[in-house]
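Let us work through a complete example step by step.
Step 1: write down the sequence.
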Amino acid sequence: MSDQSNTSTADSGITRGATGRGRLLQVLGMWFGISAAIGNTIAAGIVRVPGEIAQLLPSAVLYMSVWLIGGLYALFGASSLAELGAAIPRSGGQYNFSRRAMGDYAGFIVGWSDWLSSCGALAAVSIVVGEYSAKLIPAFSGSEKLIALSVLVGFALLQWRGVRWGSAAQLLTAGLKTAAFVVLVAACFLMGGHGNVSTAPVSVPLASGWSLVVAIMLGLQAVFYTIDGWNGIIYFGEEVRDPGRDVPRAIFGSVFSIMAIYLLLNGALLYVLPMNEIAGNRFALGTAAQRVFGQLGDPIIRSIMIVSLLSCINAIQLFCSRVLYSMSCDGLFARQFSLVNKGGTPELALLLSTVVSVLFVLGSFERLVAMLSFFFVSNYTLSYASLFVLRKKEPAMERPYRAWGYPWVPALALIGSLCFLVGSIITDRENAPLALLMLAVSYPVFRLLRLSTRNSDSNPKPE
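Step 2: predict the structure and record it as tokens.
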């Protein structure tokens, strides 16, 4: 099957899917896109990552700087993905952009790593739900992984009923988590403030020279993992009622909303706690809540985080199934995974994604974070490059939204991504090679799947 024939399949719109079955439903809007991004992004990372970054960079200026850099990186990249998402309104995420610009294998690399990293993120979030639930309700102690698995399966069953069920759950949980974090930030600024970092002693020394460079790179790894997800709407391109308008609005609304919440939360942490109490603290938000609310602080913050994490799980499961569905429609994965039920859910894609996430639950959280950040930025790199390729390759393509500051702003996002990847390979000798190995494995998997789908297409079952 040539790249040209694949592109035709790719552009066939919402009629894709297996004959005689359901199809994706064009029922989503801008607010769903923002809720999916907030739900996916503001999750486990904001709990564990502040302590890790403060351990690496025990300076308020450097600490906040890596968060600001992460926000600028997302903002510079937002216009590129807004153009691509509005011009190529397909469900499945960044996979679609790289495939159209650079061919099947480039698309497969993005789809493969995006699907695997999303399954890994789903597992990481579920693990944290289990941990928080056990701390909140002592009777659950020792059942953390059982809770994680139960949550994964529960949301899979909810989404199996249809996209409207998943969308309603996303809007509700994202609204609740946003309100809860706003209340928490307000309480910290109104009732906290006794741990001013500028006057408190710092027990963790600040690195210098090459060690400081490594610390900054590792801090950025953690930030990029934590902020990833602002582009959530692009996973539902053909399910959005008006993609030309709603995709760009949802992307920019997501970036500004997420970064406002993250900067306020981190500012609140620094206002309430001294840096030496944040550094190495795996539950810094909980410590801050205890300072503000007393003994009720821990159960309050854990309850907020459980709601937040449930919203994240729902969003990521929606993403996973769409990536696998889109690849299957294009013959880059087994055709059976393009089956969609009457509720608009790719049911076999959802099933396989859930099974893989269950297997990931057995992994290490810290290693997942480091590897996932490498995958995320690799995909952004190819997407930003795709913008330039498509501008040259298909100048007549209809573009309801055009990236602002082109070519300079998209170039900054692309250069930033490349610098991060090179820096990760140089500074993280433990996790970056594993991530590269998983990407390398994609080629033989790609060849096997292409051979399998071609054989299947050339030997159709008799009527």
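Step 3: interpret the result. The first helix runs from residue 3 to 10.
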